[in-house]
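User: Predict structure, ligand zinc ion.
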Amino acid sequence: MIFTVLLVILLGFVWFSLRYAWWRPAVDYRYPRILMYHMISTPRPVALFNGLRVSPQLFERQLRWLSAQGWHSFTVSELLARAGTLPEKSFAITFDDGYADNALQALPLLKKYRCKATLYLVVDRFDRDWSLQRKKRHDEAELKRETKLSDQQVQEMLDSGCIELGSHSMTHANFLRIESEAVGRELIDSKHALEERFGVSVGSFAYPFGLYHPQQVELVKQAGYRSAVTTREGIENAGSWEPLALKRIKISGKDNWLAFLLRMRRGRRGWRP
Ligand SMILES: [Zn+2]
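Assistant: Predicted complex:
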């Protein structure tokens, strides 16, 4: 009996350790954290993309914690511009795709906690099911049904003064599946379309699905972007990072609070190096 209890405790400890890798030290707090969000909305029963849905309550708890712990909020372009002179505990919030809840739910909270964010907007985001271009499993139209930001809502976000506009391509194309010329158009046309429509300069890009060939980084540069974010997880030294292939911290609606804290400390939740 005692043996069984001890074994269960031991297995529980091993599971917990592998899941959270609690022994790993924090990444240097002089290295900025770039946080990746998609939707700020309540997760739905039996939905495929609940990892992309961070509830407004959880988002507010995270912002409150960041503010109470003395973190400093920047946009991605500000992080780039100030690399080398950034204070300890700098971070940037990013939103990918352009869901309407970014204006309805996230913006009021960003204002309340005086936080900035970079919005990576898909230009042609209405009636488009880009999840199809990645895996068959995603053939659900779940993301297609999500209400996207109208241009007016985007304008409202920009008028708040706390939002930087970045591009997330024209159509959310999978860069691994299209020719260089088409990649170039996705990069250049989206930059011009957003700049023209909203009258701001667009200097940052987010790779659709985080997917790209290493040689496409040069195309991003040629298109005139100064920074680009990926979906690779991690935290980097702003003195030596690659501005056109920045790592981010995935903020998942499926994570518990401990997982969020560990991601802020180390860039990822689990045991992988
Ligand atoms: Zn996306």
